[in-house]
Amino acid sequence: MAEENQHHPFINVQYKAVIVLLSSWAAKGVTAINIDLAVEFEKAYEHVNHTISSIR
Asked: What is residue 21's predicted lDDT score, i.e. its pLDDT?
């Protein structure tokens, strides 16, 4: 998703947590693209979480 949007967020994986930081260096802050990407990440998380929950 990030590559499709030509955006490269900071992603940190720690034990049971994944931290994604979205901002635009050139814009010096958060842009509409960042928000759209966050929405897409949330949808992907919900899909994976639902899939894992149904397996258990």
From this structure: 92
Q: Of 43, 23, 26, which Cα lies nearest the Cα of 34?
A: 23
Q: pLDDT-derived band of residue 6, with 50, 70 and 90 as boundaries?
A: confident
* Sign for the pseudo-dihedral over CA of 41, 24, 16, 4: positive
Rounded CA-CA distance 49/56 in Å is: 11
> How far is it, in rounded angstroms, from Cα 13 to Cα 22?
15
Predicted TM-score (pTM) above 0.90: no
In this structure, what are the phi and psi dihedrals at residue 24, rounded to the nearest 5 degrees?
-115, 115
Long-range contacts of 18-22 (CB under 8 A, 24+ apart): none
Alpha-carbon distance of 54 to 5, in angstroms, equals 31
